[in-house]
UniProtKB/TrEMBL annotation:
Protein name: ABC-2 type transporter transmembrane domain-containing protein
Parts forming coiled coils: none
Listed transmembrane segments: 16-37, 133-154, 166-186, 207-234, 246-267, 274-295, 366-387
Gene source species: Hevea brasiliensis (Para rubber tree)
Membrane topology listed for this record: Multi-pass membrane protein
InterPro entries: ABC2_TM (IPR013525), Plant_ABCG (IPR052215)
Length: 409
């Protein structure tokens, strides 16, 4: 406690008077003759912190081979400061400030418009993402390595009957495990959240501006991650060659990346610790993978919970069906089944083998995914707003008055 009081006195002195006066007052005690010599070698604040630090309580060198304990050093500095003229001047200055009358300070928000806030936050977030190697660049390198592995394992997959299962497995890996790696940027986003919370309390900008800035700043990086590794995997495997099919493939991968980041934003608003957040986000995506329609076909999912509503909540349902429709529609494969027609069309494969809903086009699937992106971002905004209003109430309810503590003890 004495150490804290001493730091408070020194802090007040630093605000109103020069360092030289502090040095002079410190030299008043006979035991502090070598303080000036110490300050010449060390920052003044570091010297005082080292002198009063009791964490590693040991004897301090006094000079002429003598040593004093930390407790004695604190007492010497406190007495020296209280007996100095600087202490009286600080008390007079504080009393003068307290007697002055003025208007009550009011907390005002940012004077900048919402659009200006969004532009500034977008630029700042874009620069931070570019400088932070772990945010996107490391993930890009891992994605390239994974897509090279996928491309070489499924290289030139062909159009045989066995390629039907291989295509479905490859597309499922892209929809599930490649997008799963998007949680790698969660620790960096948690750091951004800490900065946001401090600046939010200071009234610099609102939650909406933060969400908009983070969304637009991440789009270029997600596009790069979707296009470069996606092109490697797509053309090495030998999927449909037209540019329209590849563009849909990359756009759907981009939507899945953005959706997972939006999901992790929602997780970060509830679980701010990055380790617990990664575990929570991975668990949520794991459950969605199981209900995506690949490990268990839609008709085989147990009802009512896993089929309704979990199957429709999992974004992998729409990602898998979008990839399947984009790849199989318009193709024809040889049919190895006995008693059947010699060929089987892509539409029959989608309907009978993968049990894909054919009542709507593949563009509806991608529209649903972008809608889920907006939904998750709005959920993040709403959770932050609710936490801001509920947290003070929880503190009031859980706080115990000092009188009650005394009566209990």
């Amino acid at each position: 406690m004495e150490g804290l009081l001493l730091l408070q006195f020194i802090n007040l002195a630093v605000k109103f008077l020069s360092y030289s006066t502090i040095f002079a007052s410190s030299l008043m005690a006979e035991q502090s003759i070598l303080v000036l010599f110490q300050l010449q070698k060390r920052n003044p604040s570091d010297h005082y912190l080292r002198t009063i630090n009791k964490d590693f309580d040991g004897d301090l060198e006094q000079g002429l081979g003598g040593f004093i304990s930390t407790e004695e050093a604190i007492n010497v500095l406190v007495k020296s400061y209280e007996s100095s003229e600087i202490f009286q001047q600080v008390k007079q200055q504080v009393a003068y400030i307290c007697e002055k009358k003025g208007k009550i300070l009011e907390k005002k928000g940012s004077q900048a418009s919402f659009i200006t806030q969004c532009i500034v936050l977008t630029k700042r977030s874009f620069v931070n993402m570019c400088r932070d190697l772990g945010y996107y660049w490391l993930r890009l390198a891992i994605y390239i390595a994974l897509c090279l592995c996928v491309g070489t394992i499924f290289h030139d997959i062909g159009f045989t009957y066995g390629s039907i299962q291989a295509r479905g497995s490859m597309l499922m890996f892209v929809a599930a495990f490649l997008t799963f790696m998007a949680i790698g940027g969660f620790p960096s986003f948690v750091e951004d959240m800490k900065i946001f919370e401090r600046e939010r309390l200071n009234g610099h900008y609102g939650v909406g501006a933060f969400v908009v800035g983070n969304t637009f700043s991440s789009i270029p990086y997600l596009l790069i991650i979707s296009l470069v590794p996606g092109a490697i995997a797509y053309y090495l495997v030998g999927l449909q060659k037209s540019f329209q099919h590849f563009a849909y493939f990359a756009l759907l991968l981009f939507a899945c990346m953005m959706l997972v980041e939006s999901l992790m934003m929602t997780v970060a608003s509830i679980v701010p610790d990055f380790l617990m957040g990664i575990i929570t986000g991975a668990g949520i995506q794991g459950v969605m993978m199981l209900n995506g329609g690949f490990f268990r076909l839609p008709d085989d999912l147990p009802k009512p919970f896993w089929r309704y509503p979990m199957y429709y909540i999992a974004f992998h349902k729409y990602a898998n069906q979008g990839f399947y429709k984009n790849e199989f529609e318009g193709l024809t494969f040889p049919n190895n089944q006995v008693g059947g027609s010699p060929t089987i069309t892509g539409e029959e494969i989608l309907r009978n083998i993968w049990q894909v809903e054919m009542s709507y086009s593949k563009w509806i699937d991608i529209a649903i995914l972008f809608g889920m992106v907006v939904l998750y971002r709005l959920m993040f905004l709403g959770i932050i707003k609710i936490i801001e209003k509920v947290k003070p109430i929880i503190k009031v309810v859980t706080s115990v008055p000092p009188t009650q503590v005394q009566t209990d003890t």
